[in-house]
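Feature request, filed as a ticket because there's no other form

It would be nice if the structure record came with a short human-readable summary line next to the tokens. Right now we just get the raw output. Example of a typical job, pasted below so the devs can see what we mean:
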Amino acid sequence: MNRLTRSELPGVDTPGDSAQTVALTKRATWEQAEGSPLPLGVTWIEKEQAFNFAVHSERAESVALLLFSATDLVNPILTFRFDFLRNKSGRIWHCRIPITDVGEARYYAYSVSGETVPQLHSFDPQKVLVDPYAQCIFFPPGFDRELAMREGPNAGRAPLGSLTGHRQKFDWGGGRPPHHESDAVIYELHVKGFTKNPNSGVEASRAGTYAGLVEKIPYLQELGITVVELMPIFQRDHVAIVAERGHFVGVITRIDLLNYLRKQLG
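Raw output as currently delivered:
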């Protein structure tokens, strides 16, 4: 609620010294009421204490946002059905949900329906779909990759996006990343592949982990490495990992995930 005197209102004369107080209700902006199409994914809006959700689906006829609590991964505690007149801009569906409505929700996903065109795109509103732009993905204990490939519901067995923006972030303690130029020596590695083998010299309890990689920092420095690139560092379907001849193949990448979801989301 904004309180302004009439002398502050444009086009209104003030009669003498008798200033009258006028109460104006601040209207919500279009983005506050209906959400913003960008950026894609889920974004925490600190000043509004709300989440903005945006997902691309060109051929979907209807989209629903599902919010799940940590204790029930089957039944959503909130289902928001997008209005294609209010919550759709071009090919992007969007909405804004205040934290008061999010409540105890920890995870989110989508349900999408539309016309199926063989070899191009398909829809199954029974399927719980993870956001392809989720910055953090949660795989439930009952995750079932095969169930996602068959007709029928997969609630409680599907990966979900995590709602994390409103929680306390990691404190870097004022640390700033170095900016390398022509002196950069880049080494690309797979965390598990680099530290799991006994010849890595990593302590067994930390082999195949980020903590194990920390043990190898002195070795990398001896080689003159200044930059380490990790692959992959995002969440993935562990079922898709196949070990062959000591090398890791068949890892589902973000591109694989996007291609799969593009068919599901249309």
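Something like this underneath would help us a lot:
DSSP finds six helices and 15 strands in the chain.
Confidence is low (pLDDT under 50) at residues 1-24, 242-247.
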